[in-house]
Amino acid sequence: MPREMTIGEFQQLIERTYYDKDSSRGLAPSFMWFIEEVGELAQALRSGDRNELADEFSDVLAWLATMASISGIDLEDAAQKYACGCPKCGEMPCTCPEPGGHQSESSASC
Ligand SMILES: [Zn+2]
Q1: Which of 56, 60, 65, 100 can bridge 44 by disulfide, Cβ–Cβ 3.0-4.6 Å?
Q2: Residues 59-109 pLDDT 10s
Q3: 84 CA distance to ligand 1 centroid (A)?
Q4: 44, 53 in Cβ contact below 8 A?
């Protein structure tokens, strides 16, 4: 089993495995599955069970990739938003005054 893959390779892997089912199911039902998995991740975070946590992160990541694929978004491209640090202040680590980050401004190329 390969250990290293880019986020784009992961998205392609999920597409090869599930895209036919996912695309015929459609966006709204798939989004419900995604949110259900996010809920299971919340439960795992509360329980603190490491195996359960890793499992739920896997599921959320897979469903996130599915949502991107159905929406025509390339996660490799999407990840580039953060490639140069914080998209808002341009710093790494972020020096924005408020904690929380993940701002929604588009990043300039670095
Ligand atoms: Zn910042």
Answers
A1: 56
A2: 999 999 999 999 999 999 999 999 999 999 999 999 999 876 665 665 556
A3: 11
A4: yes
From CA 56, how far away is CA 49, in angstroms rounded? 11
**Which fold does the domain 7-73 belong to in CATH?**
Helix Hairpins (1.10.287)
Residue 40's identity, in one-letter code, is E
Domain ranges across the chain: 7-73, 83-110
Contact 99, 32 (CB under 8 A): no
The pTM assigned to this predicted structure is 0.85
Q: Give the containing element (helix H, strand E) for 42.
A: helix 27-47
| CA 76–ligand 1 middle distance (angstroms) | 21
Q: How far apart are the first and last CA of the chain?
A: 34
Instruction: Round the CA-based radius of gyration of the chain to a whole number and report it.
Output: 16
